[in-house]
Give the backbone structure.
Amino acid sequence: MCGIVTAIARRNIVPVLLEGLRKLEYRGYDSAGLAVLKQNGTPTLQRLRAVGRVAELAAQADATGLSAEIGIAHTRWATHGVPSERNAHPHISGGLAVVHNGIIENFEELRDALRAKGYAFTSETDTEAIAHLLHDKLKTHPDLFDAVRATLADLVGAYAIGVISEIDQGRAIVARKGSPLLLGIGEDGHYAASDTAALLQVTRKVVYLEDGDVAELRLDGYRVTRQDGTPVDRPVHISSLSADAVELGKYRHYMQKEIFEQPQALANTLEIIAGGGSVSPQLFGSDAVDVFAATRRVLILACGTSYHAGLVARYWLEAIAKLPCSVEIASEYRYRESVPDPETLVVVISQSGETADTLAALKFAKGLGMTKTLAICNVPESAIVREAALRFITRAGPEIGVASTKAFTTQLAALALLTLALAKVNNRLSEADEASHLALLRHLPVAVAKVVELEPEIERWAQRFAGKHHALFLGRGMHYPIALEGALKLKEISYIHAEAYPAGELKHGPLALVDKEMPVIAVAPNDSLLEKLKSNLQEVRARGGELYVFADVGCEIAESEGVHILHLPEHYGLLSPILHVVPLQLLSYHAALVKGTDVDKPRNLAKSVTVE
C-alpha cells in the first residue's frame, strides 16, 4: 500500500520522482504528492499535491516548471482521513517535509501532546503527527539524522518514512519498520523507494533495509544505522529485474499481460526440476530434510488469493503426503486462542513478502514455539522471506495488476513441489508416483499455454453476463478454492457481486438466490466428483439459472438452452486447479473490460497490503 520515492542527485530529480510514482501505481493509491528543495538562493520547500492519479501531479509539475536536486514523493492509500488534497502527503512542519507508509497506532496521543505545545493540525492523517513531532525534536536534537532517530523512538506502529529539510538541504533521511523500503545506489546520486521497480530508471544496485534501520542519503554516499545509532553494513544487490519487465508491451492491461505470462512464469518456477529425475527437499533450504522429517502436520497462513492457494494445497498435502493440514486467514490467526505444536511446519504464502497480516501471523506462530517455518514468496529479499527458516522463491516476475494471476499459479506450483518433498522425506511417495507427478509438472507450462488460447471464446461469454449484478461460482473438492478465487477476481475488477460455494451446499441456502438473472459459473473437472456436480447443475437449471461451465474433455455435459460449455484442452489430475483458474481469470478480465472499470487499479484496493 502506498509508495515512497526519495532522490538526491546531480540532475533534476522531479522526473525521477514522478516516474518512480508511476511505477508504484500498482500498489494502490488515491492521491499523490511531492516536495522538493528549491535551490534559488536560500533553499525553500515547494510542495505539490493532487487527488487522483499521478498524471494530475505530473501536470502540476509541468505547469510550474518544477526543478530540484533533492526531493521526496508519495502515493497515498487512505487510512486516516478521506482522500483529499489536505490529507495527501508530503506533510510539512516548519521547514521540513515527511512522507510515510504504514500506520502510527499512537498518533492520537502524539497529536494531543503536540497540540498542547502549540502545533496546529490541518489534516486527519497520522503522518502529520510525525512531521510535527520531528520538528519538535529538532529543538533538542539539531542534527536532522539524530532528530529522526529520536522521533522514531516515540512512534508505535509500522512505518517507512522519507524526510527532507530546509535547514539540512544536503541530505535526505529514510527509515523503515514494518513497511518495505530500499535504497538505490546510482552513479549521479542516491535514491530510496518502496519497490525496486521505481528505481530501475536510474539504477539496478539496491540495498534492502531491515526493520529498525535508518539511512542517510547524500550526493556522495550513504550510511545506514540502527535506530540507536549503531552503524550497520547492508549488502548491495544487483536487481535481476529489467525496465522491460514492468512495461505493458503489446497488452492492453498488466492483468492481461500477466495472465499470458503464466506459462513462462511456471516454466521459470519449475526450472529447478527440469533436468532431474526426483524432487529434492533442499529446494526449500539446506535444513529442509531434517525439518520435513520432523513434521507431523502443516499449518498454512495467508491472505486473499494466497489463502486460496493454501486451500488447494491442503487437498494435495493430505492426499499425497498424508499429513494433516489446516489453512488459516493470517489476519484472524493471531487473534484467537490456538494450540501450538512444535512438530507443525508453518507455511506462509505472500506475493510481495511484505503482507503485514501474514508477517505478523508468522511472528506470532514463532512466538508460540513453532519454529519450523517456510515462506513461499515472489520477492527474495522481502521481510517474510527473511523471517522464515526455509523459503521457496517463485519466479513469477513483477506482478503489477492488483488482481493476482501469475503469482497465484506459481504459488500452486511451489506448493505442489512442497507436497512431493514432504511425501518423499516421510516415505509416502513411490518412485513411480514421483516420476508421474514430475512429468505433469514439467508439462504444466504447455498445458496452461493451451488454456490461454481459449481467450476469444471466454471474451464472448463475458459479453453475455457482464451486465449482471450478481454471480454464483460452484466447485467441488480441490476445485472449490478455485471457485472462490474466480469469485474474488470478478469482485475485484468488475465490481460484480460474486459468491462461491461448494456445489453440494446449494440445497443448504444458496439455491434460494438462483433465478434467470443469476449466472452460475461452474468448475467441472473430469474427476471422481463429476457425477455429483452434474446433479448440482441440474438443480440450478430446474430453477431457471443460466450455467457457464468450464469442463474437461470427456465430461459429457451437453450444451443446451441456458447451458454454455467451454472445454479445456486436457484433464490434468491433481494439478487440474492450476489449469481451471486461468479461464476464470480471463472471464473476470473481459467482464471488467465490458463494464469499463479500471482493471489494473480497482477502486479501494491495493496490491501490497502493508497495514493491518
Remarks:
- The longest strand covers residues 31-38.
